[in-house]
Amino acid sequence: MTTSTSPAAAAVDPEAYLQVRDLKVQFPTEDGLVRAVDGVSFSVRRGQTLGIVGESGSGKSVTSMSILGLHNPARTKISGEISIGGQNIVGMKEEKIQKLRGKDVAMIFQDPLSALHPYYKVGAQIAEAYKVHHPSASKKEASTRAVDMLNRVGIPQPQRRANQYPHEFSGGMRQRAMIAMALVNDPALVIADEPTTALDVTVQAQILELLEDLQREFQSAIIMITHDLGVVSQVADDVLVMYAGRPVETGSVEQIMKRPQHPYTWGLLASVPSLHGDANVDLVPIKGNPPSLINLPTGCSFNPRCRYAGQNGNRSFSEVPELRPAGEDGHNVACHMSFETRQRLYAEDIAHAGVAQ
Amino acid sequence: MLRFLIKRLLLAATTLVAISIVTFLLFFAVPSSPAWTQCGRNCSPERIAQVEQSLGLDQPITKQYTDFVKGVFVGRTIDDAGTIRECTAPCLGYSFRSKEPVTDTIERSLPVTISIVAGAMVVFLTVGIGLGMLAALKKGTVFDRVAIGASVGFASTQTYTLGGVLLLLLVYSTGILPNPHYTPLTENPLDWAGGMLLPWITLGLINSALYARLSRAQMIETLQEDFVRTARAKGLSPRVVNRRHALRAAITPIITIAGVDLGAYLGGVVITESVFSLNGIGREAAQAVSDLNLPLVMATVLLAAFFIVAMNIIVDMLYAVIDPRVRLG
User: Fold this and answer.
1) pLDDT digits 0-9 by tens, B217-275
2) Which residue intervals define the domain ABC transporter in the entry (chain A) (predicted)?
3) pLDDT tens-digit profile of B293-316?
């Protein structure tokens, strides 16, 4: 078990490279306090992949930005612990975090066209990432290394490509270049924030495969942030499902995909079209929209959108559910319904819809 | 690149010809004659006709226009009431008022305008962009508020207000600065700068305000770009992120605006020149219009148009150099 997410019982995994415990990220704004992340714990070992799943505004990107220490401390309140290779970066000095960023923890961003600088050549941007953590390297060494990396991520004619600008690359090639840049310093942890969302489906598969190959080669820990359960099922070992800044379900990819226990996870699964079955009837979208992070619904944040809210008297509306063991080892869920009720509802209502079938 | 240049030069030439025709037509549409301003209030119709003839205004408009164009390219002979003047190309005619060749007037007044504009640009580009960028980096702080507050104040001031106040304070009351005057740079650089200091400060400060707000907005927008976040995620120091990544992208549109502004200012900064009694091209143009001095009006209008058109071409080419995504064609 590499993922343990109950804030109360956040077990320390001594082998984990990244250990996040009871992370809370809040942004004070003029409209009120935005609770973007409200008590999340997880851990990832080297060579393992954790998928973080949720809709926009569920807190997954904010979580990843905190792991890089990229939030402006003047405008953000962060508490909890983010331990990277044994060092807690919460409250760490900016200069020290800078030394970790890009070297121990690297990030692959969603849209490589906007994430790469439009005015600099791709090779130069990769070389810059190398040089900042290898100050003694010569310019030539850094650019040779950049070409090397472009070659490693499967870009043909890397020498020529290094001298081109991002806009001269195709979408898939750009994301490969982005990955080359992230991996140039052999980071132990790679955070991929929706790395395939902006790409064609056929290219998506190539990029995911590339990430897996590189993970085997570098033994890095990967956090895959996505709203796409297809991606998660393909690459993740463990899954964390987030809703409105809180973890709602965690477990192995097998547990989450095959035996999901939270109505929100059911909703995510049932709203992904399946290649089998009747296209007209088999989708069950989650009604409504994610809540405002300033004014969360009382009780379970998911209650306004949950078909089953109110099954246990008033608890859905008055009590915030904690993550609790959901039966199998490593599987946790934050839901007021009993295990038996969840089992029954899943079998009756969900198992036949979308990819859940 | 060459194709682009040829296309733009042709377009520029067309623009200038069109402007010259419109100016000519507008001049003759005015219900007054230069002859009136020449011979005064109690002028007999015979005298008017005589003056008009001496100025060549009795000829058909088309003939006058073709004569003007011919003069520009090959030169022409002007018969001014018996006095024959040789006017070599580029001939812009003789001033109706002073009888001096218009090219001489331009040669005398253009350096004045160029001096004012060049110095003022140095002021507003450094002060304006510098303040704006700093304010963006320190967004929300006291510095930001003071800088932006001050720039709103200056931006809503007019040259004749600020210029007048500065003249009073720095020249007439205290004598800290000399009275604004023009000495050619080649003659005495120190005196050139001393005489230009006040116009530089005035025009510079007012434009700094605009450029400060522009650069601040541009920089704040750029700092939120994904590629700036990428630069930070690489582990670059804030200094490198701001300078190499954010500033580089934020400054590009500002250069464009500065280039177009430069083109517009070189045609004459009428109010600045008037406030400080400097005989630049703008003041000559304003005077020429009120005198109905056709040759000088034509010359100053065309010169202003030329600067604007030329700077636009230069800015477009510069943009292609700065931003690799821009392809000229």
Assistant:
1) 999 999 999 999 999 999 999 999 999 999 999 999 998 899 999 999 999 999 999 99
2) 18-269
3) 889 999 999 999 999 999 999 999
Q: Taking all residues of chain A, what is their mean pLDDT, rounded to a whole number?
A: 88
A117·B249 Cβ contact <8 A: yes
- What is the rounded CA–CA span in Å between residue B292 and residue B297? 8
Residue of A nearest to B250 (CA): A119
**B102-123 helix and B189-223 helix, angle to the nearest 10 degrees:** 50
* Beta-carbon separation of A165 and B325 below 8 A: yes
Confidence band (pLDDT; 50, 70, 90) for A2?
Answer: very low
Which residue segment(s) compose the domain that B76 sits in? Answer: 2-87
Q: Closest to B233 (Cβ–Cβ): which among A107, A118, A119?
A: A107
Question: How many structural domains are present in chain B?
Answer: 2
The verdict on whether omega for the bond into residue A7 sits within 30 degrees of 0, i.e. cis, is: no
- Residue B283, chain A, CB below 8 Å: the answer is no
Among the partner-chain residues B235, B323, B324, the one whose CB lies closest to the CB of A101 is: B235
Tell me whether A98 touches chain B (CB under 8 Å): yes
Do B74 and B146 reside in the same domain of the chain?
Answer: no
Chain B residues touching residue A101 (CB < 8 angstroms): 232-235
Q: Do A114 and B226 touch (CB under 8 A)?
A: yes
- State residue A4's pLDDT score: 42
- B246 and B143, same domain (yes or no): yes
B66 and B117 together in one domain? no
The secondary element (H helix, E strand) that includes residue A223 is strand A221-226
Helices (H), B30-128: 34-39, 45-55, 61-74, 102-123
Digit-coded pLDDT (tens) for A275-326: 666 666 667 778 888 888 888 888 898 988 888 888 777 888 888 898 888 8
Nearest chain A Cα distance for residue B222, angstroms: 11
Contacts of A107 in chain B (CB under 8 A): 230, 233
- Residue A3 — very low, low, confident or very high, per pLDDT cuts 50/70/90? very low
In a domain, residue B97? The reply is no
> C-alpha distances in angstroms, A245 versus A34, A248, B106?
10, 9, 70
Cβ pairs A/B, distance under 8 A: 67
How do strand A87-88 and strand A77-84 relate by DSSP bridges? antiparallel
Q: Complex ipTM, two decimals?
A: 0.87
Query: Which chain A residues are Cβ-neighbours of B136 within 8 angstroms?
Result: none
pLDDT of residue A8: 40
- From chain B residues 210-229, the ones with a CB under 8 A of any chain A CB are 225-227, 229
**A133 contact residues in B (CB cutoff 8 A):** 235
Which SS3 state, helix, strand or coil, does residue B8 take? Answer: helix
Identify residue A174 by its one-letter amino acid code: R
Looking at residue B218, which CATH number applies to its domain? 1.10.3720.10
Q: Give the end of a domain, one of A160, A186, A212.
A: A186
Rounded CA gap, B282 and A229, in Å? Answer: 68
Buried b / exposed e across B294-321, counting CB within 10 Å, b at 16+? bbbbbbbbbbbbbbbbebbbebbebbee
Look at B235 and A102 and tell me if their CB atoms are within 8 Å: yes
Closest-CA distance, B220 to chain A, in angstroms, reads 14
Which chain A residues are Cβ-neighbours of B323 within 8 angstroms? Answer: 118-119
Residue B261 — φ and ψ, nearest 5°?
-60, -45
Question: Number of folded domains in chain A?
Answer: 2
Tokens of A188: 């132990």
Residue A122 forms contact with B (CB below 8 Å): no
Q: Tell which A residues from 125 to 144 touch B, by Cβ distance under 8 Å.
A: 128-129, 132-133
Contact present, A225 and A218 (Cβ < 8 Å): no
Between A207 and A278, whose confidence is greater?
Answer: A207
